[in-house]
TrEMBL record:
Stored InterPro entries: Aminotransferase_I/II_large, Kynurenine-oxoglutarate_AT, PyrdxlP-dep_Trfase, PyrdxlP-dep_Trfase_major, PyrdxlP-dep_Trfase_small
Cofactor (UniProt): pyridoxal 5'-phosphate
Entry-linked PANTHER family: FI04487P
Name of the molecule in the record: Aminotransferase
MF term (GO), any: pyridoxal phosphate binding
Species name: Pseudoalteromonas luteoviolacea
A Pfam family matched in the record: Aminotran_1_2
Family: Belongs to the class-I pyridoxal-phosphate-dependent aminotransferase family.
Gene Ontology annotations for the cellular component aspect, listed alphabetically: cytoplasm
Swiss-Prot/TrEMBL keywords: Aminotransferase, Pyridoxal phosphate, Transferase
Domain Aminotransferase class I/classII large intervals: 25-375
Length: 379
């Protein structure tokens, strides 16, 4: 059979986790927390399941969860939205991204993405009949040259996908970036898909500059968020998308045929968590900043060059002083010979990337971070 995605194989995350398991290595590759979800969230899930809330939820989401998301947006971003008309609960952020792309992209459309980029963007655009236009960003700053972006806009350009805080670079977009983005959107009648799954994990008192802060930009945008990242429950596959009503309506037309509705008792549990323990969201940034700082301190005596981590739970390391291997080969050697699994950054680029940079995930217990750093310091 002819493949619709001939260039897509097994993801690097599955490969590296498989290698980590095979070699009994410390897994700092795949981006999932090593610690568990909050007790209140788990007990609420159990209670709602036992109480019989086990059938289909409304396709857009349980009303109480939509309302709590709207309240969170008002508190964090000073933006009032219509919970019922604008918040759609999805089976994880990846479904939200896929549906947003299918809602927008038509045959022959072009979508601008910034490399290194999350690996789901390109396949989703191609399945919609579109083409991704890749603009590479490079270490150590991973800054967007907006004049370069403007030069890439054509009559076929439909949308721009942004990701802030950014996976894998751990950088955050600044006010100047949003000003330039908004100008392009208005000038060329473009749409924005804003991947903000790490929105509550920002460091050094830097605020997350969400599309949700700008009412005018939001009118042309889909904003994607993740309950899994926020509440340490990635295995639940729970996310949501916020969009203006006209875009949300198109989003829901497709969502109902992809997933119809998301895990009912989990939605109810998440609504309770947001309502009764709002401090969890507020404490997320200092929680992960402590882990970032712990790993950075433990690696200070290593030969790696540590790149700045402004948000997410990732840290980039430049290994140029250690090896001349390409990053894929280096990561394979790292897990097989030194017992630490990492992700090579080149896999996030559409075109060959010669930089010697790897990504570590620090959403791990302190003992794991210290043990991994000790191994890395021996290189």
């Amino acid at each position: 059979m002819e493949s619709k995605l001939p260039s897509v194989g097994t993801s690097i995350f599955s490969k590296m986790t498989g290698l980590a398991n095979a070699h009994n290595a410390l897994n700092l590759s795949q981006g999932f927390p090593e610690f568990d979800a909050p007790d209140r969230l788990k007990s609420a899930l159990s209670d709602y399941t036992a109480a019989g809330h086990n059938q289909y939820a409304p396709s857009p989401g349980v009303a109480s969860l939509q309302q709590e998301v709207a309240a969170l947006i008002a508190r964090k971003y000073d933006q009032v939205i219509d919970a019922q008309a604008q918040v759609t609960v999805t089976a994880g952020a990846t479904e939200a991204l896929f549906v947003a792309i299918q809602s927008l992209v038509r045959e022959g459309d072009e979508v601008i993405v910034f490399d290194p980029a999350y690996d789901s963007y390109r396949p989703a655009v191609e399945l919609a009949g579109g083409k991704t236009i890749h603009i590479p960003l490079y270490a150590p700053d991973y800054l967007i040259n907006w004049q370069d972006v403007s030069d890439k806009v054509t009559a076929k350009t439909r949308a721009i996908i942004i990701n802030t805080p950014h996976n894998p670079s751990a950088k955050m977009l600044k006010q100047a970036d949003f000003k330039a983005l908004k100008a392009l959107v208005e000038e060329h009648d473009l749409y924005v898909i804003s991947d903000e799954v790490y929105e509550h994990i920002t460091f050094d008192e830097q605020p997350h500059l969400s599309v949700l802060r700008d009412a005018a930009l939001l009118q042309r945008s889909f904003v994607v968020s993740s309950f899994g990242k926020t509440f340490h429950c990635t295995g639940w596959k729970m996310g949501y998308c916020v969009a203006p009503p006209v875009l949300a309506e198109e989003f829901r037309k497709i969502h109902q045929f992809v997933n119809f509705s998301s895990f009912t008792p989990a939605q109810l549990a998440l609504a309770d968590m947001l309502k009764y323990e709002p401090n969890h969201v507020d404490e997320l940034a200092p929680f992960y900043q402590q882990k970032r700082d712990q790993l950075v301190a433990a690696l200070k005596s290593s030969r790696f060059k540590i790149l700045p981590s402004e948000g997410t739970y990732f840290l980039l390391l430049d290994y140029s002083a250690i090896s001349t291997l390409n990053d894929v080969e280096f990561c394979q050697q790292l897990v097989e010979e030194h017992g630490v699994a990492a992700i090579p950054l080149s896999v996030f680029y559409a075109s060959p990337c010669e930089e010697r940079v790897i990504r570590l995930c620090f959403a791990k217990e302190s003992a794991t971070l210290i043990a991994a750093a000790e191994k890395l310091c021996r290189l």
